[in-house]
């Protein structure tokens, strides 16, 4: 399992996606990524703001955020399979996926690529914490490579999972 170190991301984070320094009673902090939960959502925290937090404050509770809990349990909401990706485009596509993933995480601390792996049959499998992220990445690949075809399947049970297949 790939684990992520806390990433202290930068000013590109929107104001509404970022902890702005008001800790209320019962505030949750994720011990893995240091996202902070308030206003019904997990938010990014900047390193400089993290330093201001008194971790001995009893009003703070540590709890894994949804994304890290999902990663720990081996769960995912989005799966993207890429078939027949030739050596010629492999590096370009994998780079596109990784950069799409880091931008998504900047916008929302809970939108993450969990892993990118090459399977025994040569296909690539990308797992995401959020189902629309897999769909958006698949569409992005197809928009850059017109010959590639995309299929999108949604399943409701037991979890809302989107399975996206891109075939070259
Ligand atoms: Zn977290």
How would you explain this protein's 3D organization?
The protein is α+β, with helices and mostly antiparallel strands and 168 residues long. It has two domains: 15-70, no CATH class; 76-167, Alpha-Beta Plaits (2-Layer Sandwich), CATH 3.30.70. It contains four helices and nine strands. It is elongated, with a radius of gyration of 18 Å. Zinc ion is lined by residues 30, 32-33, 35, 64-65, 67-68.
| Distinct compounds present | zinc ion
Total helices: the number is 4
Strand order of the largest sheet: 6-7-5-9-8
Enumerate the spans where pLDDT stays under 50 for 5 or more consecutive residues.
1-5
Mean pLDDT: 86
SSE series: EEEHEHEHEEHEE
Label the overall shape: elongated
Give the C-level CATH assignment of the largest domain: Alpha Beta
Strand percent estimate: 15-25%
Q: Characterize the largest beta sheet: strand count, sense, and whether it forms a barrel.
A: 5 strands, mixed
Number of strands: 9
Question: How many structural domains in the coordinates?
Answer: 2
The fold-level CATH name of the largest domain is Alpha-Beta Plaits
> What is the CA-atom radius of gyration, in angstroms?
18 Å
Q: Strand pairing plus helix content: what structural class?
A: alpha+beta
CATH architecture of the largest domain: 2-Layer Sandwich
Helix content percent band: 25-40%
How far apart the termini lie comes to 28 Å
């Amino acid at each position: 399992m790939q684990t992520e170190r806390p990433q202290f991301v930068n000013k590109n984070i929107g104001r509404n996606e970022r902890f702005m320094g008001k800790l209320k009673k019962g505030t949750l902090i994720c011990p893995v990524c240091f996202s902070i939960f308030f206003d019904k959502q997990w938010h990014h925290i900047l390193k400089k703001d993290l330093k201001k937090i008194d971790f001995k404050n009893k009003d703070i509770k540590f709890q894994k955020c949804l994304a890290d809990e999902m990663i720990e349990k081996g769960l995912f909401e989005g799966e993207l399979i890429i078939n027949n990706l030739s050596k010629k485009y492999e590096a370009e596509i994998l780079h596109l996926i990784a950069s799409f993933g880091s931008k998504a995480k900047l916008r929302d601390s809970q939108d993450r690529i969990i892993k990118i792996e090459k399977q025994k049959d040569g296909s690539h499998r990308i797992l995401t914490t959020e189902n629309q992220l897999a769909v958006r990445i698949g569409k992005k690949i197809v928009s850059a490579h017109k010959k590639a075809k995309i299929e999108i399947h949604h399943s409701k049970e037991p979890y809302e999972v989107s399975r996206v297949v891109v075939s070259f």
